[in-house]
Specification:
The structure is a single chain. 31% of the residues lie in helices and 30% in strands. It has four helices and six strands. It is globular and about 35 Å long. The protein starts with a strand and ends with a helix.
Length: 125
């Protein structure tokens, strides 16, 4: 299970939910703002770098129009482009599952306290 507790952003107000792993999960409800949410799980593999730039530009436009977007991704340029990063760890596989960092990509790179932060810091140096 992926646990979200006390979420507070746009349409989520103090929501606590368990999201089953390895299943398609749909969140439904009436949106008071008339906006939508989008979740992408590793959209980058197989894309040419120019296509990644186009994807990021499209996501920017959707966010500017009020769409909430969550992207699950390991690619440095995509992580660096994000407005907000939630770094899961402390390791991979069975060692993962906890939020070890939450903040901007710049703050993650500056802290370099996690493998993702160190990887991002090296890429931005």
């Amino acid at each position: 299970m992926i646990r979200v507790r006390g979420a507070r952003a746009q349409n989520l107000r103090d929501v606590s939910i368990d999201i089953p792993k390895h299943q398609l999960t749909v969140f439904s409800g009436i949106s008071g703002f008339g906006k939508s949410s989008l979740v992408l799980d590793e959209p980058r593999p197989g894309l040419h770098p120019a296509d990644v730039e186009q994807l990021l530009a499209l996501l920017d436009r959707l966010v500017d129009d009020g769409t909430s977007i969550v992207v699950i991704e390991h690619n440095r340029p995509v992580v660096a482009h994000a407005d907000w990063v939630i770094d899961l760890g402390p390791g991979a596989g069975h060692g993962a599952g906890s939020a070890v960092f939450e903040g901007t990509p710049a703050a993650l790179a500056e802290a370099a306290a996690t493998p993702t932060g160190k990887h991002l810091a090296a890429a931005l140096a």
